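Lecture 7 notes. Example A: sequence first, then its structure tokens.
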Amino acid sequence: MSKALKIYFAIVAILAIMVSVLVFVIPFDKKCYATFITSYIFLLVSLLCQGYVAFLVFKKSSSLKSKIYGIPVIRVSMIYLMIQFISTFAIIAANAFVCVPVWIPVCINIVILGFAAIGILLTSAVKDFIESVEKEEKQRTAFLNNFKIEVESLSNKTSDEALNKDIYKFIEKVKYSDPMSSDKLVDIENEINVKYMELKELVLNDDIENAKKALVEINDLMDKRNRICKLEK
């Protein structure tokens, strides 16, 4: 259990104790005891919902970004809690003067709970959608992002100045290439990876002539990849 989740649970527990003390210690007349108990139960349900929402947002397996995206879900649940507080104490107060039929708090609180559930589900769905889009985008850009790091490691690794300049130009080409990948690019990106490993070995072995040839070939493959990317738009 994460530290944030423990803190949130502790806050919910404190609120539950505080509410219970207030409800039972304040000398409200209970014209209709069923109405009093029903209102109190719905208040406890709203507190339990806070714990459930907190678990969804702050669970240990969640990333920091996921927790940030979960803030709107928390906000909805907190609004629900505040409205439920007002509803509960208003009904209990009214019930101290007149017998409020039990169906009134049931109907009011069911409507509040229903709208809260819809709000939580909608904001949670938006959170999940954003996360899935980001995950998919990260996967689709993984090739080029990793490849940029790899090719930058070749900078100034050879004694030949002309080859170093050509490698720098290739690094710039990779840097400004479209990062988005697709199924149609898998084969060409595999070819680029294979050719890059060959180029890297030639550069590290200072095989200048063959390294230049490999660089020309990988440049052509990169141009081909970029052309396919444009056609995919």
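Example B, a different protein, same format:
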Amino acid sequence: MRRKDSKRDQGFSLMELLVALVILALIVGLVAPQVLGYLGRSRTQTAEIQIENLKSSLSLYLVDMRRYPNATEGLKALVESPVGGTGWKGPYVDGGKLPADPWGHDYRYEPSATGGQPRIYSFGADDTAGGEGENADIG
């Protein structure tokens, strides 16, 4: 009759541990690319939402100031009164601070040459014009 606490019954064999590690590696190998893809898409979607919020803030600025910020004032005019800014009732951005894009870069601002709505955009993860995927321009 065998004793119940023999060394053979006390733990896992090396083969059992290796099989478990191989199964875990396969799962991680299949799931990790999907998770990273979702992360990249979520950053792009966050940038799109932030740009829309900044456009809404510019609309409020337009109502108060009767013009959009010029190139020198840029988006900073949403949080600080421009020189000679009578009518400014900001800050127009929650928290009184301009958000950075999801990759930590400042959003870019281009006023319209015709006086229409200005362009707000981000160059994406690589912070250079053009690109694909997470490096694509947004806005």
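Note on Example B: Helices lie at 14-65. The chain has a mean pLDDT of 84.
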